[in-house]
């Protein structure tokens, strides 16, 4: 056995790794992840180029695009466009008037109506925004849970419909004490949505079926199912097939602002909004603090690694879509279990599809989804007043929502417009002595 003699470095030659001295080593391979978290430049990059900044700037750009469309949809603006070179002030003045009037009306209809004659009517727009936001938040939370698990759940629309069927039946078919009746009706809505979410979950887990196709088909099944249900049995005592009986008074969400506090109570905001707040907290705990949430995130990040770690990806898939269905079913209760509420064909409206947009804007995070739901609820509430006062088409609101989604899906586009840094990109590496000499 021969012994290897250690090589003595030549004192006249500097080792190669010593020649690569530089002013900064940040961003050179693994050093990117070893930079000091207290570094001011790193913190600034995270703030300026992070998700929150991108979402805010996407909203700003969308409102600017909406302003351009509002201006060119105004008759006075188009009339002044014919002589814009002779009197440019007329064109810009008319454009400013059209855009400012539209957005002021949007604010009045969504947040605070400063022109109303009573305080109740002044703050009513804010409560209307929260009322519209309630089903959006609940359905979007279900979509967000699916996104975190790597599942694209398109079935919230159908889950809302089936949840509404279950909730409405429990609401009008039984006569129970106040708290118990409401609890069972809400539970019925959650179970209905969970059942409709279980079907694509088990199909994907057992057969590998694509959840996008399955949930889209289940949406159509739910659409025809509610038409059949409303035309037969206890749902159709009047024979019209358009509306179920009203749910019992004990199965209705109480108003969040009770009548005895407000003489002329026109507020529609109910305790379903509290359910949305509680659901947001529960989903946050589920995803960030529970074992199930860790498995959901792990399966979404890398299902092969999750299997290697001993997790059952199939079980996680089923559980995720069931949770999504529960949340969509709760969204249905905020539409059915209300004052003089009943089941109709339009119980889901477009909430199931709008929820996808809300979850995208919220970055699939519970708090972000909650805030995005309030924003979209405000746009929906304010759009009606904007159209009635300024004759601006309410479709402008849909354009604003669509632009927000487009920009959220393309963060590099927003960063390029505002020349923002990418927080995930390595900082520019300083030149080594070899490279500087070359």
Structure description:
By secondary structure, the chain is an all-alpha fold. The chain is built from 18 helices and no strands. α3 (51-72) runs antiparallel to α16 (395-408), α6 packs parallel to α10 (272-289) and α10 packs antiparallel against α15 (366-390). The protein is globular and about 70 Å long.
List the helices and strands and how they pair.
Elements: H1 16-19, H2 40-49, H3 51-72, H4 75-81, H5 88-110, H6 119-148, H7 156-173, H8 178-207, H9 211-230, H10 272-289, H11 291-301, H12 303-308, H13 313-336, H14 351-361, H15 366-390, H16 395-408, H17 411-418, H18 433-437
Question: Any idea what the radius of gyration is?
Answer: 28 Å
SS element count, helices:
18
Shape: globular
Q: Please provide the count of β strands.
A: 0
**Helical coverage, percent range:** 55-70%
Residue ranges: pLDDT <50 for 5 or more in a row?
1-34
Secondary-structure element string: HHHHHHHHHHHHHHHHHH
Q: Note the beta-strand portion.
A: under 5%
Structural class assignment: mainly alpha
Quote the average pLDDT.
86
Largest sheet: none
Alpha carbon gap, first and last residue: 46 Å
